[in-house]
Amino acid sequence: MIISGAASQALAAALARELEEPLARAEYDRFPDGELLAAVPDLADSGGDSGKGGEDINTNTKTDRAIIVASTISSDAHLELLQLQDAAREAGVSEVVTVLPYMGYARQDKAFDAGHPISARAVARAISSTTDRVLTVTPHEEAVCEFFEPTATAIDAADRLAEPLPDDLTDPVFLSPDAGAIDLAETVRDAYGDGSGETDYFEKVRHSGTEVEITPSDVDVTGRDVVVADDIIATGSTMSEAVGVLQERGVGRVFVTCVHPLLASNAVTKLSQAGVEAIYGTDTIERQQSAVSVAPSIAAEL
Ligand code: R5P
């Protein structure tokens, strides 16, 4: 049985189709005091500890596993996930699998100063308490998987990013805005598949949450179409700075692509003003720009 968090309903449905497993109907309510209640009436709760176990919708047979698909894009989404996990455990399913298409707080993977938490570890511990297995898609650093107590697997979905790109890119260059994402740019180049395509990366220094400085690479982009690839576009500062540098150098068309199109605040406007022709992302975060689904990549791990 596939159970969706409120923010991941399209991806959960796509995953259910891929796996040919039933999709449960979760309900997301809020009490007058603001507290959330996410529940799954389809998990026929026979009393958990009484050992009767959950029953599979449609077939009325005992549910082997509950696969909870929930991108933790907000504090509410985190809470909701904990409730869905608990509901599944309470219903007595034999395995609770937690799929975090996008893991919120993953970029806070170290303490920034004395007295600071390691927030990624804190949320991983909470999520670990009621699950047998965790899958997450292209985390900022794969090492974040070590923060979970049960086995946690990072799924690389970068190859899917080539799918929505136009077929007629002119002498393309695949760039990453920093050294950390060069593997991702190379994967997109390889998946684009015409055998050509240079890759390179910029140097990035982040001055604040919204201010970054990009130093261009030596690659000649004059008149060439460029794809800038990154794991996530959050405020859009990194991408818009990178695209600005490209525009000063007489680039052809510019496309930006990322696994996680968080696109917070005015990110879309920033990118548009920078001259980006199109923004592509996956459905790890469900946005208008989610041009491609990671459901097949997740299904392959299940
Ligand atoms: C950081 O190293 C990541 O790979 C992204 O480049 C970064 O998180 C994007 O954030 P923003 O869109 O806010 O610049």
Automatic annotation (TrEMBL):
Involved in the biosynthesis of the central metabolite phospho-alpha-D-ribosyl-1-pyrophosphate (PRPP) via the transfer of pyrophosphoryl group from ATP to 1-hydroxyl of ribose-5-phosphate (Rib-5-P). Mg(2+) 2 binds at D178. Belongs to the ribose-phosphate pyrophosphokinase family. Class III (archaeal) subfamily. It catalyses: D-ribose 5-phosphate + ATP = 5-phospho-alpha-D-ribose 1-diphosphate + AMP + H(+). This is Ribose-phosphate pyrophosphokinase. Its EC number is 2.7.6.1. Signal peptide: none annotated. One of its GO terms (cellular component) is cytoplasm. The active site is at K204. Binds 2 Mg(2+) ions per subunit. The gene is prs. The keyword Heme does not apply.
